[in-house]
């Protein structure tokens, strides 16, 4: 086996060196026949593929805790210069074994809303306080050793969150720091929500069946539970979104929890929207050796062995059908393989068609900055690996289409 550094320096960025591969179809059944209709998909094939993903890639999702409660920690009626109501919720999890865990959610809601509004929900990398320009938001992310939670870290990711524009367009927007659910490191199982289920000290051996990505997806569903209790939010109209590793998590959350009405993957790359079998940019050997805890241990068998996979990431996109899904890439983000991200949308079409829904409607990649809008949508932004106001403009347009109608 090559070292991690050797694997990274051998990553392929040359389209002519993409290995030839045959993509399996999500409609192929174990007995060799094909899924014929939406009924068969929903009742037999979809559960089988979801199980396959739990076994081969992301692991299981933990159950709901014994008790969950929502504490309103703060409410400001004059947030973001008066355009928003700002709430901070603490979501408490308690178990009969005495273990508890809590995560804090920051929520902005348009101040002038006439009734419950649709919402965006996503995890953040650096703490709720880093996502907002407002300096009096609670510091979060403390569970992650070494994360900068000083006052200097306030507001450093404001551009990535774009709260003001989202509010102006009539949407609520909520976020939680992902480290509060599972601090992002292979040695942090015992600080993660998995403690709840293990009488406090979750051992790293849990990686045999579970993963950090499953914990983050689980956390998104628990945040949605909280939004369901918030009278100013229409929790039946929530878009789950995420950037990069958090885009992998939003796809997995959308696959598991059908309450998410729109699922957005921003530059999610390898083990997100990108096809594994292209082996372009980041690949299984690189990602599993750098971030072993993101996936269950059994995923290691595909290191330098993508050809043996009986599935690829268009299966993951298919698990979201027929709900709208958006795949976004950036031109300079070759590590994430924009073309591979696009192709998983293309190849999910046969499942969307079972529901009478046209997928991407083309297999030709659009030029940069000309989004394809549809129930499966694709957007290639000029620029780097990031989630920018330009990406948000596209997501807000999609929300106007898919979260405003019945
Ligand atoms: C990288 C990783 C990517 C992506 C990214 C991120 O180091 O290789 O798969 O997840 O991190 O999350 O920013």
Q: What does this protein structure show overall?
A:
With 406 residues, the protein is an alpha/beta fold. It has one domain: Rossmann fold, CATH 3.40.50.1820. 27% of the residues lie in helices and 19% in strands. Strands 1-2-3-5-4-6-7-8-9 form a 9-stranded mixed β-sheet, sandwiched between helices. Helix 6 packs across helix 7. The protein is globular and about 55 Å long. It binds beta-D-galactopyranuronic acid. Beta-D-galactopyranuronic acid (GTR) binds next to loops.
Main traits of this protein?
single chain, 406 residues, alpha/beta, Rossmann fold, nine-stranded mixed sheet, 12 helices, binds beta-D-galactopyranuronic acid
Indicate the topology:
Layout: H1 4-9, H2 38-56, E1 67-79, E2 84-94, E3 100-110, E4 117-124, H3 128-131, H4 158-161, H5 163-168, E5 172-177, H6 212-227, E6 233-243, H7 245-256, E7 262-266, H8 284-290, H9 313-318, E8 325-330, H10 338-347, H11 349-354, E9 376-381, H12 389-402
Parallel strand pairs: 4-5, 4-6, 6-7, 7-8, 8-9
Antiparallel strand pairs: 1-2, 2-3, 3-5
Helix pairs in contact: 6-7
The protein binds beta-D-galactopyranuronic acid.
Residues 244-245, 269-270, 282, 287 line the site of beta-D-galactopyranuronic acid (GTR).
Compact overview of the structure:
The protein is built from twelve helices and nine strands. Helix 6 crosses helix 7.
Arithmetic mean of pLDDT? 97
The dominant shape is: globular
Cα end-to-end separation: 53 Å
Q: What structural category do the secondary elements indicate?
A: alpha/beta
List the helices and strands in order.
Answer: HHEEEEHHHEHEHEHHEHHEH
What's the count of strands? 9
CATH class: Alpha Beta
Q: Which parts are unreliable, with pLDDT below 50 for 5 consecutive residues or more?
A: none
Which percent bin holds the helix content?
25-40%
**Largest sheet report:** 9 strands, mixed
Strand order of the largest sheet: 1-2-3-5-4-6-7-8-9
Proportion in β-strands: 15-25%
